[in-house]
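subagent[fold] <- orchestrator: predict structure for attached chain, return tokens only, no commentary.
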Amino acid sequence: MPRNTIHIKTLQDLEFDTVLEQLSRRCNTELGKERALAIIPLDDTGVLQHILGQTSEYLSSLISDNRIPNHGFDSINGDLKLLTIENTTLEISGFRRIANICKTVGEHKKFFKKFKEYFPLLFEASGEIELNTEIPDHIDQVIDRFGEIKDKASDKLFSIRKEINQVKGKINQSFASALNTYKTSDYLDDIKESVVDNRRVLAVKAMYRKKVRGTVMGASKTGSIVYIEPEAALKYSRQLNNLEFDEREELQRILNELTGRIRPFAPLLVAYQDFLAHMDITAAKAKYASEMNAVLPRINGEGIMALKDAYHPLLYLSNKLKQEKTFPQTIELHPKNRIIVISGPNAGGKSITLKTIGLLQVMLQSGFLVPVHERSTMCLFDKILTDIGDNQSIENHLSTYSYRLKNMNNFLRKCNKNTLFLIDEFGTGSDPELGGALAEAFLEVFYERKAYGVITTHYANLKALANELPHCTNANMLFNSNTLEPTFQLVLGQAGSSFTFEVAQKNGIPYSLINKAKKKIERGKVRFDATIAKLQKERSKMAETGSKLHAEELKAREEAQRLENLNSKVKSKLENYQELYDHNQRMIYLGNKVNTAAERYFQDKRKRALVSELLRIVETENSKRKKKTTKEAKAARVKKAQVAQEVEKEVKVIREKKKVAKKKAVVAEKNKPRPVFKIGDRVRLMDGKAVGSIDTLEKNKAIVNYGLFTTNVSVDQLELVEAKK
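subagent[fold] -> orchestrator:
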């Protein structure tokens, strides 16, 4: 059994029980739900790696066509207990549950064998249990799919049931005879007959009960009807009772025998149920992971925890339901940066960041996939120690500070290089000066023992210590200094201001009172906090500038990519057009050759010379061709047709553009003011090139002299070349 090395208090602080409840709700079986609530962090790295890998494989099946078969089953714990007790007999429902489990396991083994390349770890898990077809075969021979014992379960049962059917037939015949006898009389009620204790009886009017021979089986509530079994059917009913008793005895014997056959397989059935319960939990973990976009990060043995875009699982799912945004965190711990001290104002997200790190680590070590970026990497810790929230103990009459000191003492006993400690509001609960000094001493011990940890604090001395220790880093939660609203972003490398006076001013505290408070504390401390606040503002500005530059860089890359794609398309089109042009030139050249041969034949009518010339042209062309397969030839034809279509489209577009331009030119020409012609002006026809001079003008007609000849034309057809000076 795996051993839990992480204290129950840590799991409570990190709300791991809520995660288990959410997982339990996603299980299909009662046993799966029960076992999901009992999950604990594992201390066996090999087992943990297998469980994580199996969950990751199951998650991949949810988004692929190879869906894993249904693993639903009813618990057989009660049946297994009976199998351990000698001379006990299982009920038919118990056998059906056992048969169902065996068949479900068989389906899983068959599926994982078929797709072992896709699900190697799940295939390995299914391979650890033996496939047994004897159990369902034994049960199927006795019990049918409706949950009834088959007639052929034994020869004796078959014989008894055959006799029962015969006797029932005789009862029905004798009853029908009695019914016909009394039907003509007025002895029977309108309903004629009924059924009492599974026997057909006559519904006799109470006043005529003495008239009908038989055994009284009962009466109606009002007493107006008496139910009588006819005497003719009575002897057969006794015979039927005896046969039914024999049947019950034979059924019990068959079930006893079947139980004896199944009893040796009890350990195997335990393994089957455990396997299906494990599959149920694995499927629930995969569904849970799918809902919060969880992945399996790389697990390393070098003590590196690099969380990128890490979400708090419970907060993420809660905000997802409310359709609100959840802010991810990026944080890194490694041997050269073991401890992080987070500072900054309250309500900035320090505690959530702390809990995110702790809960993700506990979940990973319990076999859960975690909501981080796929490039994240995590390591495993032997112990995870937490001190989060108000830990006042009423039962033990301990104050918050006393409880925290007791907890710190526990930390000191357990802390080593394989420990992760998480402390919220480190050092609070006592005098700030003295409590801060004690907290500083604790932190130095944790540091010397090479433990990993994250703490949140407002104490300046702890911020200063984190700045001095080489393997310790300050961090702060960014705060918008203008609006005094948190941005929920963690920034490593710099301590954060608490914005004490700024937040007070925003909340309406008079400035005179704030100024008075500033005078009551050391000037150096105010200047130190102001310096931190100033640095934080500068960092915020730099972060905004960096974001803008990054956005512009992405935009520039997209534009460059677009231009590159466009360039490649243009190149491809040019190559296709060049191929088409070369092909057309070759066709023109061949056409000219054929035309020359045709002219020669036209002159001399020599057919042999014509055929010889045409064959020579064809052979010359064929010698240049490469022999292509039918597929290649078809592809070439398709490509040529596509290029031709593209060219045709381009030409069509160009022609349309030219038509539009021409129409525009004509319209412009029509709208252009007509010149007033005079005798002696040099003119030309609109669609001509020859220039002449006007000799005569009369009624929109002009005689134009071209030197060698004259012509009479309409003035509208003329355009002015040069006016007479």
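orchestrator: received. Logging for downstream: Confidence is low (pLDDT under 50) at residues 392-397. The longest strand covers residues 188-196.
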